[in-house]
Amino acid sequence: MENSKINKFAELIRESNSIVFFGGAGVSTESGMKDYRSEDGLYNTVKKYKVSPETILSHSFFETHPDVFYDFYYNYFLNTAAEPNRAHLALAELEKQGKLKAVVTQNIDGLHQRAGSKNVIELHGTTLKHYCTDCKAVMPNEQIKALRGQIPRCEKCNHIVRPDVVLYEEPLNQSVIEAAALAISSADMLIIGGTSLAVYPAANFIRYFKGESIVLINRDATQYDGNANLVFRESIGEVLESVMLSL
Ligand SMILES: [Zn+2]
């Protein structure tokens, strides 16, 4: 990795007082989270269930085939040994130093919180919380995991328990959208990582940014590369760890 670029990145951080990080799947894959959107994920899912991951993770499919939904959901989201990686840890440290004001993430794995981040805005919800579709009673995560992909049912009313994630066909939570928009519009620096920004609504949120500097860290090119002060194609964990050491 070029030292001069890392130094420039560190300089931008030193000049900023209100940084927001906007992240996507690429942040979690470096933790070993399985990516159902990858070619492998798609191939294996269609082979096993005869439908795409996006179909399984949709509201209507959850309602009609909760058994298949939970089998898939357990395999991809619950039965994982993923731990926070260097990117999560660097961002938590940046928040501790008072520089970073919020993490806005499209991920649902809770790894930012486990790394120590406090202000995490989860656009698509979280797999760390599950609640009854009828009485809304919360079922502890350990209980859900112990079922190993069987349908969890509410202990109070026997209705199906669902994850607190936004499924396909479902709208994002309005208060979460507002919190993300407010954080991004108040920031003086935006670090975008592990997302191609190609999927709605990611790109929409970037438009709220009115600050000075944008740093983009993603393996592939994005349509926003031209708007960024710095673009990194390397591992997000490596880039963020390096810049923390250069501060
Ligand atoms: Zn219930």
Report on the architecture of this protein:
The chain has twelve helices and nine strands. The strands form two sheets. It has a six-stranded parallel β-sheet with strand order 3-2-1-7-8-9, with helices on both faces. The protein has a three-stranded antiparallel β-sheet with strand order 5-4-6. The protein is an alpha/beta fold and 247 residues long. The protein is 41% helix and 17% strand. It has helices at residues 3-15, 25-29, 39-49, 53-56, 59-64, 66-78, 86-96, 111-115, 141-146, 174-185, 202-206, 236-246, and strands spanning 19-23, 100-105, 120-122, 125-132, 138-139, 161-165, 189-193, 213-217, 230-232. The chain folds into two domains: 3-32 and 84-124 and 171-246, TPP-binding domain (Rossmann fold), CATH 3.40.50; 39-79 and 129-165, SIR2/SIRT2 'Small Domain'. The structure holds zinc ion (ZN). Zinc ion (ZN) is lined by residues 132, 134-135, 137, 154, 156-157, 159.
Integer-rounded radius of gyration: 19 Å
What number is the mean pLDDT? Answer: 95
CATH architecture of the largest domain: 3-Layer(aba) Sandwich
Determine the strand fraction and express it as a percent band: 15-25%
* Unreliable stretches covering 5 or more consecutive residues: none
Q: What percentage of residues falls in helices of 4 or more residues? A: 40-55%
Please give the number of β-strands: 9
CATH fold-level topology of the largest domain: Rossmann fold
How widely separated are the two ends? Answer: 16 Å
Strand order of the largest sheet: 3-2-1-7-8-9
What is the 3D shape? elongated
What is the name of the CATH class of the largest domain? Alpha Beta
* Ligand identities: zinc ion
Assembly category: single chain
Helix segment count? 12
State the order of secondary-structure elements, H for helix, E for strand.
Answer: HEHHHHHHEHEEEHEHEHEEH
Total discrete domains? 2
Sketch the major β-sheet.
6 strands, parallel
Secondary structural class: alpha/beta
